[in-house]
Structure formats: C-alpha cells, structure tokens
C-alpha cells in the first residue's frame, strides 16, 4: 500500500474531510483504485466503524459504490457502523 493510501486511511480514522481532499488532489483516481480491490477495508469502512458520519457521507458522495463493498470479513460499511453502535439515522 502506498503512502497516499496510508494518508487516506489516517484521514478516515480521524474523520478529517480536509485531509481526504488533500489526498484526492494528489491522485484523482485513488478511490477508483480502491473500488477495484474485491475485498478491502475502504476509507468508508474505517470511517463508519469509527462513527465519522460526515466523512462517511463525503466518501459515499464521491464514490457511492464503496457503500456496497465488503471487507475481508464480509462486512459492508453500514454493518460495521451497526456493530459499533452507530446510528443509521444520520446515514
């Protein structure tokens, strides 16, 4: 995984939308590349599990298909949010 992926992961863990866009400005197709990986903890998975709803919504606006992607354990971002006691109301 390259440095941009790590920075994107950090942005998702922190729920930092400014950092998200800083990384995207460096590589406009970064989310497309992530979407091509069959099973992956996407930035959306990470943000959903951490309860960063604003960040999660921003990712879903940028790349809606990530909302359906499963991680290595077979969970979608919404399932991770529910597992961690997050509300679907703000989704």
TrEMBL record:
Gene3D superfamilies: Ankyrin repeat-containing domain. It holds the Pfam family Ank_2. It comes from the Eukaryota. This is Ankyrin repeat protein. The lineage of its organism: Eukaryota, Viridiplantae, Streptophyta, Embryophyta, Tracheophyta.
